[in-house]
TrEMBL record:
<dbReference type="Pfam" id="PF05199">
    <property type="entry name" value="GMC_oxred_C"/>
</dbReference>
<feature type="binding site">
    <location>
        <begin position="92"/>
        <end position="95"/>
    </location>
    <ligand>
        <name>FAD</name>
    </ligand>
</feature>
<protein>
    <submittedName>
        <fullName>Choline dehydrogenase</fullName>
    </submittedName>
</protein>
<dbReference type="GO" id="GO:0016614">
    <property type="term" value="F:oxidoreductase activity, acting on CH-OH group of donors"/>
</dbReference>
<dbReference type="InterPro" id="IPR007867">
    <property type="entry name" value="GMC_OxRtase_C"/>
</dbReference>
<feature type="domain" description="Glucose-methanol-choline oxidoreductase N-terminal">
    <location>
        <begin position="255"/>
        <end position="269"/>
    </location>
</feature>
<dbReference type="InterPro" id="IPR000172">
    <property type="entry name" value="GMC_OxRdtase_N"/>
</dbReference>
<comment type="similarity">
    <text>Belongs to the GMC oxidoreductase family.</text>
</comment>
<dbReference type="Pfam" id="PF00732">
    <property type="entry name" value="GMC_oxred_N"/>
</dbReference>
<dbReference type="GO" id="GO:0050660">
    <property type="term" value="F:flavin adenine dinucleotide binding"/>
</dbReference>
<keyword id="KW-0285">Flavoprotein</keyword>
<feature type="domain" description="Glucose-methanol-choline oxidoreductase N-terminal">
    <location>
        <begin position="82"/>
        <end position="105"/>
    </location>
</feature>
<dbReference type="InterPro" id="IPR036188">
    <property type="entry name" value="FAD/NAD-bd_sf"/>
</dbReference>
<keyword id="KW-0274">FAD</keyword>
<dbReference type="InterPro" id="IPR012132">
    <property type="entry name" value="GMC_OxRdtase"/>
</dbReference>
Amino acid sequence: MTDTFDFVVVGGGSGGCAVASRLSEDPNTSVAMLEAGGKDDNWVVTTPGALVLMVAGKVNNWAFDTVPQAGLNGRIGYQPRGKGLGGSSAINAMVYIRGHRSDYDQWASLGNTGWSYADVLPYFRRSEDNADFGGEYHGKGGPLAVNKLRSDNPVQQTFLQAAREAQFRVRDDFNAEEQEGLGIYQVTQKNGERWSAARGYIHPHMATRSNLRVETNALATRIMFEGKRAVGVEYKQGNETRQIRARREVILSSGAFQTPQLLMLSGVGDSAALARHGIESRHHLPGVGQNLQDHPDFIFGYTSNNPNFTGVSFGGLARIFRAIGQYRRERRGPMTSNFAECGGFLKTRPDLDAPDIQLHFGMAMVDDHGRKRHWGSGFSCHVCLLRPKSRGSVALKSADPMQPPLIDPNFLGEVDDLEAMVAGYKTTQRLMETPALRALQKKDMFTAGIKTDDDIRAILRARVDTVYHPVGTCKMGANDTMAVVDPKLKVCGMDGLRVVDASIMPTLIGGNTNAPTIMIGEKAADMIKAEMRVG
């Protein structure tokens, strides 16, 4: 006999955790969540400094590759994505950013009623338990812990000094009235430990809510339909193929790559593209997998003799061992670092309405997402373009659900993105060349000898990759032929099927995407509850 629940949530990432938790608050509503990875409740996940073990490898990580990128000299890019409860919030750098208010007002202007900044702010606040900031922009007591870093790294003050020397604003809170400026990031941590979406929304309730069932190591392989109505999900768990049914809705929360993949595997997508893989079309929806957007990112890297940086050296290893001891005793120090401790938002031109680049200043030197190791300690500074014009896609590699999808971010596919990144490079270089940061530099690893704009274009094409913010592949829209979901997040032309993750973003927000995805889960739960009250 097949188990039946009111809601089946596919994917235990940031959006899925939030929507499943909120729906299961009502003891009369039954919710099942399917997660392809594990519980993600061990020390590798909870210790912030251990993120290096996950991002660069396959621990709790799908570790996808892109197709060759024409704008990046044909290079294959890397796309780490969280695999396990909490999704990418269990492997990310924990930076708590919401984006710019204009991002959400733009969503509303595209016909997405109910998604303006004024509409979504209450959901950001409701999700949040902010230890440092309050007032009209911040929440207390929500499931998601937000705190200042406990790494106690003195280089933070050096970074702020450099910001002043470069004549950039210094800002304490990037999530209030104004965003522009540089500062020290708040993080999704509590008591020096990572606070993933699962830790906030799911782990506390797994043993206490009889109406919430969480199945881990359960990979969804297809959505089950009766006509145009989604009625359940087929999934693989170990060597067994199982089915689970939904009375009310199937909610897809598998992220910007795997949500469109599952739709296409189930016959929902561009019918001609599906036919090439022998998949019968259930519903022709050409926007599925289109509109992929991500932040192209370039990294400045330097070796340094400063003892406060992490790296592969005798001194660096000794520092790590000392840091582990301190972390065990106090939950403070270098093991609480998210690496990207500082950064902020800058305009490459003063006439812009909102910042167009974001910096992440890292307390280690990073090359190829940490996959290429160098002897010695050092530091990095990422610069990413916040609103690229390039649009990519996600497509099926085959009809086999065990195969990863074909991911094409189309980085620097539009020449305007390359020129904007040149401006971003120069703006970041101003910061790197301040006396405060020059004093930390022993060797410039990647940008020595880069002089002209053509030099900059060449190094960008040679080294740009993702900063881990893919969105948009199940675009939300109204009266839009490429929309996949409507403003209620219901899949267009289908019944009993909703998408609740970053894939619904019509445009990429100007910042990190974890907090906005949790907001989407919170708002979706409210919309569903309102419909249940009426229906």
